């Protein structure tokens, strides 16, 4: 550790033989010290000093450039006031009697030497320094690992992983220490807890139904540990739904993939802002139990489903911003996945791409709103000119906030391998085939630009809202769509613009053409796909879809056993 004398000439003037004697006296105080936590970040003008004096917690915000002496004087004044209040409360004198309060001596020591009072705060408050306030000593911890966010989910279901939302400053989750407890079912007094686990994520069993959970988490950075947080669940463990549609799929993905294989998931998880509307409850999904449409319930199922696939790459659509930040990201991070999110303009949901951090690193993000790209990217000028011949269709395309999320991932084990991951959710309307053709043309133009500048293989996932008989699927899987295709007239002659489109990539549908990926009361069909370049990747395994009986157990989707109206596509792709 550097001595303060090496940091600043002003700070070094305080060290002397008398200072050493004072430091020795300080060391004779009680062996156990209190904590004084200092947060000092170079890019900020202020620092904070937090400690407890005379039973009162102090949290001081001071300038980093301020001299130490002013802070010590302020601490001394605060300590004497706190003592004065205590003495005044115990004094038996008459009105006006003032207790005789002596301001305590306040000094800061580093390695036994007092720190000069004209030393500036940012240099004075070093890790391992000792703050003396009267006869009390505090061990200074500068920038210790600290949880800035620590929360348990509101809903806790038996058989489903409980994933705390944790954010740590000056540390990493992999260095934190976790201890889970559950209430003792035998009682034995108030707040009786039994140790239950030591992982970041805990899965309660049916035996825990009716019990509360507690998590003690200690932040760490590999060398130090900060102050522990204790979190107690707001409610008790509730019974889960029992069998879920994905339970029979998980055994196919029980083993993680090897370095040459990528397990890919594409899934429209049904945004909460759509699931919670009156139309959803009464018209779209009247067969679904109301509690099964609730956010916390569905998120519990989604997290268990996704974590059970052991995926390397997960592309999600209809992701609420709050769900990404508060639920999905914390849960998937605990299972080795990092994620990026792109919200749609003027909406509260968007696209999320997660990747296994032991396999990939992000080397670029190139997200676009397709309508913006139509008017701003020169490569789309021919398409714009053609659309301009029909102002009605052009305006319709420009009004949409449809987004393409593009994430460039580099293999950690082989840096010569790069994956360009496209993730999108195209226009939904049944008569919008013409709009979707325009949107996919815009998406392909953008992806072509990105892969030319950053050579790599394309994996293109999403909810394309297009069946295998559509012009869009023909374009992606066969390489072209003619101007005579019926989708150009999907919304009648008033929006008719006909053109031939070419696909600059050679793509194939990794999961083929399932009978359906969307199953609701009034419709079922295949709308979701994982497209890949067969010259670079080959399909090693497609995780079987749920059986028709499983999907229709509760009539349609979503249901108490399935959290979305879509079904996840899951496949293993191997590098050639």
* Averaged pLDDT: 91
Helix/strand/pairing category:
alpha+beta
Q: Please work out how many helical segments DSSP would assign.
A: 15
Oligomer: single chain
What helical percentage do the residues reach?
10-25%
Record field, number of beta strands: 30
List unreliable stretches of 5+ residues: 1-7, 12-31
- If you compute it from the alpha carbons, what radius of gyration comes out, rounded to the nearest whole angstrom? 31 Å
Physical arrangement of strands within the biggest beta sheet: 3-2-1-7-6-4-5
Overall geometry: globular
User: Span from first to last CA?
Assistant: 52 Å
Largest sheet: 7 strands, mixed
User: Strand fraction band?
Assistant: 25-35%
List the helices and strands and how they pair.
Layout lengths: L3 H4 L1 H4 L4 H11 L6 E7 L5 E8 L2 E8 L4 H23 L15 E5 L2 E2 L6 H4 L5 E4 L2 E7 L3 E6 L13 E5 L7 E7 L9 E5 L15 E6 L10 E4 L28 E8 L3 H4 L2 H7 L10 H14 L4 E8 H14 L2 E7 L5 E8 L3 E6 L2 E2 H7 L4 H7 L3 H9 L3 E9 L6 E8 L7 H21 L3 E7 L7 H8 L1 E2 L19 E2 L5 E2 L8 E3 L2 E3 L2 E5 L4 E6 L5 H4 L17 E7 L1
Parallel strand pairs: 1-7, 14-15, 21-22
Antiparallel strand pairs: 1-2, 2-3, 4-5, 4-6, 6-7, 8-9, 10-11, 10-12, 12-13, 14-30, 15-17, 16-17, 18-20, 19-20, 20-21, 22-28, 23-24, 25-28, 26-27, 29-30
Helix pairs in contact: 8-9, 10-13
Q: Would you write up a description of this structure?
A:
The protein is α+β, with helices and mostly antiparallel strands. The chain has 15 helices and 30 strands. A seven-stranded mixed β-sheet has the order 3-2-1-7-6-4-5. A hairpin with a 2-residue loop joins strand 26 and strand 27 (523-525). Helix 8 packs parallel to helix 9. The protein is globular. The two termini are 52 Å apart. The model is unreliable at 1-7 and 12-31 (pLDDT under 50).
